[in-house]
């Protein structure tokens, strides 16, 4: 979709979500933004309003199914949603000594339930209109389980495969679906990493790649290409070989 006029972005208070909100902000565009940090979300909204966009904000927990449905349906009733970017997510790892059950469940809830809670309230009206676009934020980490971030990798693998399947299911309804698979992008999430991050991208550059991919209805928007190639090759290796390579990999905090 070249010029979506009504856009919902979850996880918009920082990182890629913030960069996408600022990139899409323009006169005649209605943005509905949600995030966990209300102060930062208001700062993002203010920047978008300066660019001429109409902005509605809400600090809704994406794991709250009822609250998300209520908010999204109210937004859609006022300005029918052209584009939903299900971006909200969280990360953690085993650098502090292991991934606890509580940590794993929280990551899976935000990264999986949060995506489902963002998509499904809008599907009935998108189907009725016969148009719409959905973007799901996966990750290059979803192509191969990495020992430093089990729950994160698993959650992003689910989002990637679910989105790929959803694309085929919704095509006849006129709804476009794209899966976004970034590598390392500068954000608060990557700022805590205490290890080298190959091909680390600026957030604004990542947002531009995503927007261009969505404009051409790309099934998968994976970047940067050197990191994407390395991950794909790793996924093709026999597990025993990959395990040896990954055993020495740094662990995320």
From TrEMBL:
<keyword id="KW-0560">Oxidoreductase</keyword>
<dbReference type="GO" id="GO:0016491">
    <property type="term" value="F:oxidoreductase activity"/>
</dbReference>
<dbReference type="Pfam" id="PF00106">
    <property type="entry name" value="adh_short"/>
</dbReference>
<dbReference type="InterPro" id="IPR002347">
    <property type="entry name" value="SDR_fam"/>
</dbReference>
<dbReference type="InterPro" id="IPR036291">
    <property type="entry name" value="NAD(P)-bd_dom_sf"/>
</dbReference>
<dbReference type="InterPro" id="IPR057326">
    <property type="entry name" value="KR_dom"/>
</dbReference>
<feature type="domain" description="Ketoreductase">
    <location>
        <begin position="5"/>
        <end position="188"/>
    </location>
</feature>
<dbReference type="GO" id="GO:0016020">
    <property type="term" value="C:membrane"/>
</dbReference>
<comment type="similarity">
    <text>Belongs to the short-chain dehydrogenases/reductases (SDR) family.</text>
</comment>
<protein>
    <submittedName>
        <fullName>Short-chain dehydrogenase</fullName>
    </submittedName>
</protein>
């Amino acid at each position: 979709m070249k010029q979506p006029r009504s856009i919902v972005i979850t996880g918009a208070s920082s990182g890629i979500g913030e960069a996408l909100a600022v990139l899409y902000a323009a006169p005649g565009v209605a943005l509905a933004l949600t995030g966990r940090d209300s102060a930062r979300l208001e700062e993002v909204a203010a920047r978008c309003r300066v660019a001429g966009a109409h902005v509605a904000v809400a600090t809704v927990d994406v794991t709250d199914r009822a609250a998300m449905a209520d908010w999204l349906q109210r937004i859609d009733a006022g300005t029918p949603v052209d584009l939903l970017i299900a971006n909200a997510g969280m990360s953690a790892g085993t650098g502090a000594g292991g991934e606890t059950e509580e940590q794993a469940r929280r990551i899976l809830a935000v990264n999986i339930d949060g995506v489902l809670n963002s998509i499904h309230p809008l599907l009935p009206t998108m189907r009725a209109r016969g148009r719409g676009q959905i973007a799901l934020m996966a990750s290059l980490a979803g192509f191969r389980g990495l020992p430093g971030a089990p729950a994160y990798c698993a959650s992003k693998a689910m989002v990637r495969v679910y989105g790929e399947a959803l694309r085929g299911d919704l095509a006849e309804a006129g709804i476009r679906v794209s899966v976004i698979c970034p590598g390392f992008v500068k954000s608060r999430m990557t700022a805590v990493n205490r290890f080298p991050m190959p091909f680390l991208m600026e957030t604004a550059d990542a947002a531009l790649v995503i927007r261009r991919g969505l404009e051409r209805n790309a099934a998968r928007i994976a970047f940067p290409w050197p990191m994407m190639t390395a991950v794909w090759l790793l996924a093709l290796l026999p597990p025993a070989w990959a395990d040896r390579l990954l055993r020495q990999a740094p662990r995320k905090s």
